[in-house]
Amino acid sequence: MVGVSDGQSSAQAPATARTRVGRPLLSLALASMMDEVDAHSGAVYLLAADEPVLEMAVMAGMPRAFAAPWERVGLSAPIPVAQAVRERRLVWVGGEEDMASRYPRIAVVLPYPFALAALPVATASTAYGAIFVTWPGSHPPELSDRERDHLTAACDRLAVRLERAIAQNNPLHPEPDLLAGSPLAGPAGTLGTIEAARMVARLPYGLCSLDLHGRVSFANAAAAELMGVPVSRLLGAQLWASVPWLNDPVYEDRYRAALLSQDTTSFVALRPPGEWLSFRLYPSTTGLSVRISRARAVAEMNRRGPQPGDAPSRLVTISQVLSLAGALTEAVGVQDVVQLVADEIAPAVGGQALVILGSRTGRLHVLGHRGYPDARVVERFDGLPLAEQTPGTQVLKTGVPAFFESRQQLERLYPTRYAAPDDFAAWAYLPLIASGRPVGTCVLAYADPHPFPADERAVLTSLGGLIAQALERAQLYDAKHQLAHGLQEALLPHSLPPLPGIEAAARYLPATQGMDIGGDFYDLVPTQGVAAAVIGDVQGHNVTAAGLMGQIRTAVRAYTTVGQAPQDVMRSTNRLLLDLGSDLFASCLYLRLDPARGRAVMARAGHPPPLLRRPDGRVRVLDLAGGPLLGIDDSATYPTTEVELAPGSVLVLYTDGLIEAPGVDLEDALADLGQRLAEAGERPLDELADHLVRNSVATQERLDDVALLLLRARTEE
């Protein structure tokens, strides 16, 4: 079905009965367009009728599996066909490096040398879809005027035809894909198929013919003998599916590379137990011819064993790239990204060291590095103005990758570069571009001179796009973490004030899920002759909860300072919370301490009960009278309870994060806390606080914040 869009308001094709157009309009238009510009593959997309989505209607020249991830794409997707429709213009991608830099998602899946043009299929007022066509990697980096004119005119003609089809109430169906005919068909006057087969059978090496789907349509006896599979099992099956030891993504990757680039490619494979075979793939627009022979050079090398200077293969396949992409999604902070690149990516591409660079206030900043024996070599670039002419600053500013195969090449292009006695001999500077802007540069260093062939440059640049996405997320996380940490520090007391007759210690642990910030709080407020202590918990682990916590803590201090009684402090704080109009509630426990009389008066608002350890070591849970959570009922009252606080007694005030854990009964957790308090209550308060927090089951994963306030009554000397 054809959907249409005018860019501002959306017009849609009538949702009436679907009737077929008399001829395959899309297929004919695509085939004609490809023929005019000598493209070797392409596809037509149509806008869906009821959503901003492009749907592939027909593909030509390649199996649809090559473009499977993009059969349905949203108009906002960062790929060429969607961009062509959004911007109503031709989008040109001149090669693999250009693709990797601008569209890393495509380059990750198809890291091969090919050029691509995408155009909108649209009239002056209505967009109907888009077309893309591709050329082999040998195509010039720029689109010629002739090609541009042919493509534009063909899309305009197709748009007019689609407009007529819509007007005639003839929405289009997807059409069968256009693939080449029999690979054995040939021009008149050449050898007949029987004689050609006889000739091929006499050759001493193996020959196979594959169609565009990779299925074997012909194989001679030598090919069957070399691979150890009968011809009958080869015919009609994909080569890597019918030969078990070829069932590896590396070999399928070479087939894809040959078809997309239309360049001859090759690989060697080990036929068990110890025979190496060489496969050379000769592509055309109708399929591939494969020549199979014994790889004598590899066999000789295998017999002589590894020699000094032999380097491991540095081929990064699709499966490796996807694996690395998955690993990067696990990175949380910037240092996690640096470590993952060092552990997973640098070794895979043969690099021995790396640096991740970013920018701030017009200067270069080193975000992290690995593999440099002397860190000062890297850190001298920290703070370098972006105006300096160095490869790191240039790549970060321009977003264009730079590859230096040797130190001489680097120094020739950057003669004023700061001396870097790092003993490395080759470098890849990869721009890290996320959301259309450079967020940094990844520098990979190699111990020996290193050539960077085109396919490796494309893979490296694609990896740069993946690293950039992870780095952007990590920088955002680190910024939020720093904000949360600073806000939490500002809202909680930096130190506990000294109180006459009272020794105090406190601990705060944020939840391990969220922003490392929450609504748990505690405070000590000295007053004349007596002192007040408070602990509370506002719902949530976010900035809103923390802000409300700060307001409650300030209010409790103010009400205490003006001399309100404990029950009045709680009532006033409850009314304040209601007046603020917050949807959050808070629990709270407030104590008025009088160590001279050995007494404490407590008021409770839905908070977990405190524990009291007496001087003789016995522990009891103080079952205090109390009222509802703060912020629920403006008429709530909060009765008080007076508790004896003899010298040597320890009061344990805490929030529920200390005792609540999935699968743990609250009464059991409270009993366990009391047992630990009884056993370790004689310790100094700081040691006791660490002991109680460290040995709590609930604090291992911390689904909630934890606040702990310990108070010990002592005799004044």
Number of helices: 21
Mean of pLDDT: 81
Residues in helix, %: 25-40%
| Beta-strand share of residues | 15-25%
What does the overall shape look like?
elongated
The largest beta-sheet arranges its strands as 3-2-1-6-5-4
Find the structural class using helix and strand composition.
alpha+beta
Give the oligomeric state: single chain
- C-alpha end-to-end distance: 91 Å
Record field, number of beta strands? 26
Alpha-carbon Rg, integer: 36 Å
Largest sheet: 6 strands, antiparallel
Q: Which stretches of 5+ consecutive residues score pLDDT under 50?
A: 1-22, 181-191, 297-315
Describe this structure in words.
This protein is α+β, with helices and mostly antiparallel strands and 717 residues long. It is 34% helix and 25% strand. It contains 21 helices and 26 strands. A six-stranded antiparallel β-sheet has the order 3-2-1-6-5-4. Strands 8-7-11-10-9 form a five-stranded antiparallel β-sheet, with helices on both faces. Strand 10 and strand 11 form a beta hairpin. Helix 12 packs antiparallel against helix 13. The longest helix is centred in the middle third of the chain and has 38 residues, at 454-491. The radius of gyration is 36 Å and the shape is elongated. The N and C termini lie far apart (91 Å). The relative contact order is 0.06. Residues 1-22, 181-191 and 297-315 have low confidence and may be disordered.
